[in-house]
Amino acid sequence: GPPHPLGFAISLLFHMTQTEVCPPSCNCKSLGETKGLQIDCSSRKLKEVPALPVNAKRLYLQNNSLTTVPPGALDSLLSVEEVKLFDNPWNCDCHILYLKFWLEDVSEPSLANIRCATPAPVRMKPLKQLTGNELGTCKKSLPIKCLEFFWRDLILIAAAIVTFILVAWALKFSKKVVFQINLRRYTTRGPLLWRHTSKNHKLH
Ligand SMILES: *[C@@H]1O[C@H](CO)[C@@H](O)[C@H](O)[C@H]1NC(C)=O
């Protein structure tokens, strides 16, 4: 049936409170009514950044097993002032740029002690010092992808042309068959019918 207004209100409330909820593996401390939360998720062997409350102000994620942050994952955290992300095995391919740019916007000093663990050429390099041409591993994959798209498109276009030719041929063939059937009907049944009706006419 239609959604119950109370059920909708409860789910909305649940959704609202969920964004305020402390991640299960972390310690959260209120910094006062409007000041937001201190969220301590450090030293917990985390492999992924947990879902974080939007009112996070201090975010401690150091000494975990984080390698990357999915693009957009931190966009909802608008009141963050301090972030600790050091002592994580960050994988500094092009996907790390989201984290780098987010930190540059939100908390530039937090960038200082974040170091890359992989890939090998940038091992131990601070994220702050990472330059564009050191993110080579992702750049290389782009032309391969383009080439993939090129071949896929070529195959699709070829398939479309073959289909068109087959349909055109089938239409031509079926027209010929229909024409032959019509012709046969005209030459055999047509005159008979005509003779039959003309006979009837004669009877009247
Ligand atoms: C890092 O985390 C591990 C547990 O994952 C803990 O045993 C260790 O003491 C932590 N190190 C620091 C410096 O906090």
TrEMBL record:
GO terms for cellular component: glycoprotein Ib-IX-V complex. It comes from the Eukaryota. Residues 88-139 form the LRRCT domain. Residues 1-19 form the signal peptide. InterPro entries: Cys-rich_flank_reg_C (IPR000483), GPIb-IX-V_Complex (IPR052313), LRR_dom_sf (IPR032675), LRRNT (IPR000372). One of its GO terms (biological process) is positive regulation of platelet activation. The chain crosses the membrane at residues 149-171. Keywords: Blood coagulation, Cell adhesion, Disulfide bond, Hemostasis, Leucine-rich repeat, Membrane, Signal, Transmembrane, Transmembrane helix. Pfam families: LRRNT. It is found in: Membrane. It is a single-pass type I membrane protein. Residues 21-58 form the LRRNT domain. This is Glycoprotein IX platelet. The lineage of its organism: Eukaryota, Metazoa, Chordata, Craniata, Vertebrata.
